[in-house]
Prior knowledge:
Blueprint: H1 8-71, H2 73-81, E1 89-96, E2 99-106, H3 122-202
Antiparallel strand pairs: 1-2
Amino acid sequence: MTDFTPTKTNLDRAKHFLVFAHSSHALLDRKRKVLIQEMMERVSRAQDMARELQARLDEVYQLIIHANIVYGSLAVEELARTVDPLETIEQLSSSVMGVSLPRLLVEDYQLEASYGMYRGGVSLDHAMEKMVGLRRLLFQFAEMETAISRLAYEIDRTAKRVNSIEKIQIPRYEALVKTIEEALEEKDREDLFRLKIVKKKLK
């Protein structure tokens, strides 16, 4: 702020930086608002998913309790071990205002045909189908939670940059422009005064 030469060139540069600061502030503020909107939409969807997840967890839990009573816990554990814990998952990504958000593509998991005839356990079969469906919802919920976390981080980072430009950079360049303008005006007045003196001496 103090280490400058009050010239028209420096004044033009200071004005340029001020315009750039205002432009950057507008762009970053727009980015922040878009990210907030994106995050709030995902938060709403995540809340719906959480309610559905809880309801389906409760349903599966009741089915497992029933299966334990009817077929015994050992039979249920034996069947649970036959389910492959891994699914084919392809991790992709999408971008929102430069923020990379995860997308998980999960292949449909097919239960083996032997489940349906497992000791004639139709209700046990039903419980296994529900559990497999629940895994897909868990993947979707994890994807949504990760996206929300990344958006929240970028919103906070962008808000800090917006605040820095608004509270520090813009006032700094406004003050610099004003200081240079005042110095140049003072110089012009001094030059005019000296010119008048010279003219008087020449008369």
